[in-house]
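Collaborator request log, item 7. Partner lab (contact: R.S.) asked for a structural prediction of Sulfotransferase to inform their binding assays.
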Amino acid sequence: MRYCINCCIHLLPNDLHRQCFRCRGPDHNNQKCPVCRGENKIPLYTDRKQMKWLAVLEVRTDHCESWNGFFCLRKGKLCSLMFGLIIMTLVMVSYMLTGAKHGLLLIPSPFHYGAFASNPSLMDNESLSDMKDYYQPSKMNISYVKDYPSIKLIIDTITSKIEFITRQRPDLEELRKQEPHMFSVIPNKFLPNSKNPCWYEEYRGNTSTDPYATNSYALYSKRFRIIFDYLRKVFWNHLYHYKDKHYRLRCLPHFYIIGQPKCGTTDLYDRLRLHPDVRFSAIKEPHWWTRKRFGIIRLRDGFHDRYPVEDYLDLFDLAAHQIQSVLQSDAVKERGKKNNIIIGEASASTMWDNNAWIFFYDNSTEGEPPFLIQDFIHAFQPNAKLIIMLRDPVERLYSDYLYFASANKSAEDFHEKVAESLQLFEGCVLDFSLRACVYNNTLNNAMPVRLQVGLYVVYLLDWLTVFNKDQILVLRLEDHASNMRYTMHMVFQFLDLGPLSEKQEALITKSPASNTRRPEDRSLGPMLPTTKAILRDFYRPFNTKLAQVLFDDAFLWKRT
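Returned to partner:
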């Protein structure tokens, strides 16, 4: 084996090693070159013969010199590369800072907002492809339409996973095991001479005892203390004395306005309060069935001490006092008349909010709650009446966003939050059932906007597993706003309320609407047309099922 002394490269027989710089320079002459002529050429035999140390030392020295040159070359290139990257970064930062001020940035966000010219001829159920002719670039982003297909794929995936499966209703004994104290307080029978569910409960306190000293509603909320201060003053005047014992009248609501938020429940509540035979809890929305009985005061604050059922019943004491006055009147005692005063409760979370179940009840198969709010209400009040006020879920979601968002509200921000929420919902339905995702506490807290609240039919079907259809009245806010007198008559008839005088009816139906959108929210304008198109696609299969269940195509919300 032969090696070139100058570069220690293995040479083949008769190889002059022409590629070597030292062997063949620009003025190389084979006759003059001592290496090419064979002088001072020391082949290294590495397999069978001993090597000369001088040759080895000479090879090693030249080898180090060649690598030093290589590293110097690399160092120079690296410095040049780093300098170029720094300059490019500074230019990009300068471009982004100045371009953002003038709306010139072309870098798209994960989901862009669509912007379409307003055109009254476009119907809400038209697809986005039909609307592209009317597309106009927005000042904020010129690539709005491009991402609609990707969001539409998410919606298509969700739609493909929709299954409306009837849930298994738990039996009464299972419910008793979960809430033994509640079943020990609320009886299974009520007074026969009262239309409202009421009963007498023995009171074991004395005149120096504060009956509301431990009421959690009074302790945690200053605005309710005035109500409880009044109840303390009149409490002893309304006790019923029988055989040296004291009894207080306890009542539950006769009817519940169970949902949905931002669908006109406050307006319905305010109008029903004006009826002479209707009373409500001391607080419009106690949220006891859904939150307070689990110790949830504010969702962001975590869990506190659980509110016992007695605290909830205290909220109906004002109405119970009036019912008791009727029951003790001569008309009821002597002529066998019945008390017609009824009590209502209007927590708009009752229909949909079952988020706390996972912390208190054993998990069921595939993450679905084994017990729902309606299971317990039905266990105590199988004859309860339920009122549901709904609106176009697309508009409901935007109203919900405007009401609860605290800062940086805009149609563009709403669009981003909708896109993010759809992604999260898709991720859930790929692994779990629709019901498991709808009642998933982690998912619902993670979604920037409450998409799940607008899935009305999912909740309604679960309520229909325990209550008969004739016990539930479903209204539309759109109908209520356009013909309030008609909807209020429907409610009066549903609750079997007595007739009203013209003056009373005018007072109820002509009062201004309650809880309308705030002026600062109205100034933000409507949602982006692209956002509306996306939400129409998302809610369409649920609205279709709802219209089938209620036998009413108005719940398709095609022209709202």
